[in-house]
Design brief:
204 residues, alpha+beta, seven-stranded mixed beta sheet, 56% helix, rod-shaped
Length: 204
């Protein structure tokens, strides 16, 4: 091999080496670009997941807030229904109480064992009321009371009892003219009357 051929071979080898180096550089660049692309994709995925999580948290908090509001409204509704149900029960009890001809056999159903006020008297026992009712029925066999449910006004008090005012027409004798009487009653949670008196309305 002469000197020119050797020189040619060296040039070729040099070119081949340069090409190989360039390809290795290109391969490293491509590899780096691939790594960068992967990292960018990972970062985007993390950011997207975080944003999605925030949105999910916001949605969850909104749902929980709405659930709390719904529960609160349901509780208020239940309390109102319970209150109205109790008031209605007391109203119907008082309607029955004033409409029923009471004697010594059924007074236990309506009166508390001890009544704080019984018309003009205070701290009256049930056995005393029974005796007075017996005398009243003997003296006034044709007495009666007239009123409607709409004449009964119920108020729930803080001390766990109900107070009622009832506008009535009282007949001492059903054949005679009645007079207006307002009854004031107090009923406990056991649905027993522990206070009763009547009020004459003021003349207009």
């Amino acid at each position: 091999m002469n000197s020119e051929e050797q020189k040619f071979d060296k040039n070729e080898l040099k070119k081949l080496a340069e090409i190989a180096n360039k390809r290795r550089k290109d391969a490293r660049i491509i590899s780096l670009l691939g790594i960068i692309a992967t990292l960018v994709g990972l970062v985007y995925s993390i950011v997207y997941t975080v944003n999605l999580s925030k949105k999910q948290v916001e949605v969850l908090e909104t749902i929980q807030h709405k659930e709390i509001l719904v529960d609160s409204l349901e509780n208020i509704s239940n309390q109102l229904n319970e209150k109205f149900t109790k008031s209605d029960s007391v109203k119907h009890f008082i309607n029955e109480f004033l409409s029923t001809v009471k004697d010594e056999n059924n007074l236990d159903k309506y009166y508390s064992p001890k009544v704080e006020r019984y018309y003009l008297r205070k701290n009256v026992r049930l056995d005393q009321i029974k005796q007075e009712k017996k005398w009243h029925l003997q003296d006034n066999p044709r007495s009666k009371l007239m009123f409607d449910l709409s004449d009964i006004t119920i108020t729930e008090k803080e001390n766990n009892y109900f107070e009622a005012f009832v506008n009535t027409l009282y007949f001492v004798d059903s054949l005679k003219q009645p007079r207006e009487i307002i009854y004031q009653l107090k009923v406990n949670n056991d649905m027993k009357v522990f206070y009763i008196r009547n009020l004459e309305p003021e003349n207009k």
